[in-house]
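Repro:
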Amino acid sequence: MANSTVQFDLTNPQHVAMRKLMADIYARHAQAESFATQKRYEGMSQGLEKVALYVLCDHVLHQLCFEMSCALAGQQECLSEVAA
């Protein structure tokens, strides 16, 4: 059975640069102390998705950014439930 998950191509400089940005956004979202700040980082994540798709025309990178956006939204949802 083939592995169907997408992965960064670490020989591609755009993937390496985007990976650094994604790691920074993910870490800052996790450390954010307010809902507004977390939403700001979610918006940045969605911006990276658009850059990957419309500027870089890289569907693999777009998928990775999309998955990060989903992860951030999921974390936000879990935190909202805990706070309620």
